[in-house]
Every structure is written in C-alpha cells, then in structure tokens.
Amino acid sequence: MPRKHARRHFSQLSEFERGLMIGMKTADWSTRRVARQVDRLECAIKNCWEQWTREGTHAWKTGSGATRKTTRRDDRKIMRQALVDLK
Fold first, then answer.
1. What's the CA gap between 19 and 55, in Å, rounded?
2. Which Gene3D superfamilies does this UniProt record tie to the protein (predicted)?
C-alpha cells in the first residue's frame, strides 16, 4: 500500500504551481481533482482561482501591507525603554 505524502499546508505556492492550477481549472478540472494532483488544500485552489477570475493574475501583489512608521532602531529603543519601565 503506497504511503501518503505529507501535505504542505502552510508553504507558499510557487508561480509554477499557481499557473498549473489555473491551467487545470481552465481545462474544467474540478477543484478536488486539482487539489489531489498538486497535493494542496482545496481552499488554496479556490483562493488562487478566485484571484485569477477577479484580477486576471495569479501573481502576488508587491508592496501589500501597512508601511512602517518606525525604524528597526526605534523599535529596539522602545523595547529597551519598556523593559526599563518594568523594573
């Protein structure tokens, strides 16, 4: 009996995998079939497909997220000051 491969639940999808999934879904494969083929969770396939249908791209957006308001140096100073205040 063949052993099951451990699923990579929390690893990022590569560009190749995303393109492969989009191709399979475009060829009318079911989400479950695609998930089994690329050894990923169905929700990852659905999220990738939704992004493709909504935005027409499967690439990650660059620069997403909030911009930094403090520098790393300021962060260290804040942490040091907090530790001093605790004593």
1. 14
2. Homeodomain-like
Q: For residue 14, which of 50, 31, 39 has the smallest C-alpha distance?
A: 39
Judged on CB neighbours under 10 Å (0-12, 13-18, 19+), 21 is buried
Q: What are the counts of helices (DSSP H) followed by strands (DSSP E) for the chain?
A: 4, 0
Helix (H) or strand (E) holding 75: helix 72-86
Judged against a pLDDT cut of 70, whether residue 40 lies above it is answered with: yes
Residue 65 gets which letter from DSSP? S
SS3 23: helix
Quick: pLDDT tens for 8-23. 555 688 888 888 999 9
Q: Mean pLDDT in the chain?
A: 82
pTM above 0.85?
A: no
